[in-house]
Amino acid sequence: MHHLSWQLYCSMLNSWGVERVRLLKTWDPFLKRALYFCVSQAWRSEGLELSSSSNEACKLYDAILTQYVKWRNDETLGGFEGCISALHAADPNFVMGHVISTGLELVATTSSTRLDERLAGAVRRTVELAGCQDISPRERLHVRAMELFSHGNFPKACDVWEDILVDHPTDMLALKFAHDAYFYMGAQVQMRDSVARVLPHWKPHTPLSSYLKGLYSFGLMETRFYDQAEKVAMEGLTLTPDDAWSVHTVAHVCEMKAEIDKGLTFMEGREKDWQVSDVLASHNYWHWALYFIEKEQYEAALQIYDSEVASGSMLDTVDACSLLYRLEMEGVCAKDRWRELHQVTKAHTDDHVILFNDLHFLMASLGANESGASQRLVEGLKELAKEPGDNQQHQLAGPVGVPICQAMLEYNQGNYSQTVELLYPLRYRIVDIGGSDAQRDLFNQLLIHICSSLCSVLCCLNSSRCLLVERDAARPNSALTDRLMQRALALHV
Fold it and tell me: What residue stretch is flagged as signal peptide (predicted)?
């Protein structure tokens, strides 16, 4: 390695990312200094200058961003936590270092700045640092977007990230943060078009370029371009076989098209590739479990729940809630599991970061028969809805979030007519709670179950027929839809 030419050092930047950082661990100090210089220069050459005097901090920023894109803790680097700690040690005043570390905590939705003073302080610290330093306009916009997001103003935060992408279309951090925020708002078209707008500016040699296939394919899938979504995702997997987000898109396509056997074969055949992306692996297993529910293989779904759907990240936790709720609608008892899961969710009862989380926490408290926690969650959401300020999620709490919560409470108490009265008029607004079509399908299934059960009410019979026809049109040949139809017919004969 000591005899490599300078040109060869620079050519290695074509594999810009974690792979380069691994090499740094074995090179001598001279080579490390040379490549650190290249790291800083590489960002600058992309028009994405980082205002830090520490090349080590720039290297670690790059490593964190790469892990974020790959949905993976790289333990050879210390994972997210190790890299973030080392980054702040290398340059405590590095503004973009604070943007990425605090921003990642915010988009994880595991904590509320209303309640968590440490997190709120981290946001303030970033804003203060930006105010007393000569940083670039792009970096200043990043600080502004992060601050807006921390206040729950997701639409304006996305506007700022899009402003960044107009002048800096290869800014992956802006692209990913916007992608996540659109997902939380159920803004499907925006999520797709945000990536579509920047695609022409990315070249095959641009660092992390292959991962845009996964991002774009997911937006295509959520806007019902299923065949195109699968094609783009498979292109991504050809370039990067362990791209877990592209795998995730194909899993969704198979779910939405009710191609269950194809989905099972695909997930099993590529398991060793996507399993390494530990941040997303549990969610991909969740999709696998949905296929088993569709096929009435409930024990297989429960086995995945017990072994793979962990309750570590917030995504894992809401997946666990969703899976148990679906199984219970299918007649599977999950009482003990609900009690265990509620031990995780009860700590977040007062968070109210996003409505999607709130609704899933409510599933857990209802499943565990913890009526006090259920009432506390709903009452807290009602209070925030009275004066929501700029918080987009709290603005939606009154017209959407609270009525869905109330419908779930009524359903849990056996008041099915009241449940339908609350939930049926909102069925075209459920998208506003965020998440994916596959995740929100739980509420469609709930409505169908309730309407089908109310055999004595003509309007509910008609509603049930409408919902079943709609679901059958969206998912032709779905075994689950067929079962629901048969159940409804049996009750209304």
Answer: none
Summarised one tens digit per residue, pLDDT across range 187-231 is 999 999 999 999 999 999 999 999 999 999 999 999 999 999 999
Cα separation, 355 vs 472, whole angstroms: 27
Q: Which amino acid is at 425?
A: P
Angle between helices 172-185 and 154-167 (to 10 degrees): 150
104-154 pLDDT, tens digit each: 999 999 999 999 999 999 999 999 999 999 999 999 999 999 999 999 999
Determine the Cα–Cα distance for residues 433 and 334; give it in Å rounded to an integer: 25
User: Among residues 102, 80, 190, 91, which one has the least CA distance to residue 146?
Assistant: 102
Asked if residue 303 belongs to a domain, the reply is: yes
Query: Which residue has tokens 């040949």?
Result: 477
DSSP-assigned letter for residue 433: G
Look at the chain and report how many structural domains it folds into.
Answer: 1
φ/ψ bin of 296: left (φ > 0), alpha (ψ from -120 to 50), beta (otherwise): left
Q: What is the pLDDT of residue 162?
A: 98
Averaged pLDDT, 326-354: 95
Give the pLDDT band of residue 456 (cuts 50, 70, 90): very low
Q: Is residue 279 part of a domain?
A: yes
Mean pLDDT of 410-434: 94
367's tokens: 């499943």
Residues near 24 by Cβ (< 8 Å), separated by ≥ 6? 32, 35, 36, 59
Instruction: Note the pLDDT of residue 165.
Output: 98
Name, in order, each residue with C-beta under 8 angstroms of 47's C-beta and a sequence gap of 6 or more. Answer: 167, 168, 170
> Residue 248: which CATH number?
1.25.40.10
**Amino acid at the residue 85:** S
Q: Does residue 55 fall inside a structural domain?
A: no
* HSE of 203, CA atoms in CB hemisphere, 13 A: 4
Token code pair at residue 271:
């398991």
pLDDT band of 45, cuts 50, 70, 90: low
**C-alpha span between 265 and 18 (Å, rounded):** 31
Sign of CA dihedral 160, 165, 171, 177: positive
- 375 or 478: which carries more pLDDT confidence? 375
- 477 part of a folded domain: no
pLDDT computed for residue 35 by the predictor: 46
- Per-residue burial over 429-454, b if 16 or more Cβ lie within 10 Å, else e, is ebbbbbbbbbbbbbbbbbbbbbbbbb
Give the max Cα distance, the chain.
84
Host domain of residue 214: 208-308
- The secondary structure of 157-172 as a DSSP string is HHHHHHHHHHH-TT-H
